[in-house]
Amino acid sequence: MAMIKTVIFSVMIALMSTSVIAGQTIYKWKDAKGNLKYTQTKPPAGTAYVTIKNRDSRASSSPAPQASEQAASATSKQDEIIAQQEAEKKRVNSANQEINRKNCTIAKNNLEVLETRSRVQVEENGERRMLSDEERAERLTKAKENVSKFCEQ
Description:
The protein is of the alpha+beta class.
């Protein structure tokens, strides 16, 4: 965002500076080596030159307000986009917090069941069976990991 504002500011400065230059006389001439020169000061005495006609500085100031209006419009649109992105980010964060809260509740319930009951039944493929001691220990470890993952944030 700061970079975009810097670019817009630079463009506005460039537009304003061209209107200042447009009001000045420009001289076109060749130096002793034959290089073409454009200057705002007259060339050395005895050098042939051409005066370049400039537009009236008032005529060039008309586009500047349009450019600043366009820049303001672009900035306004960018601000709207940023506001929408921030609102979306807040919505996503809120949804993630709600999901974590639900996962925390589930993880705590699973941990409580595994810690308080000596025999735990599970349903797999439509059939119920009892967990072995090894399976129960694995699930207990996983439940503790889930509690720390979802509840302690």
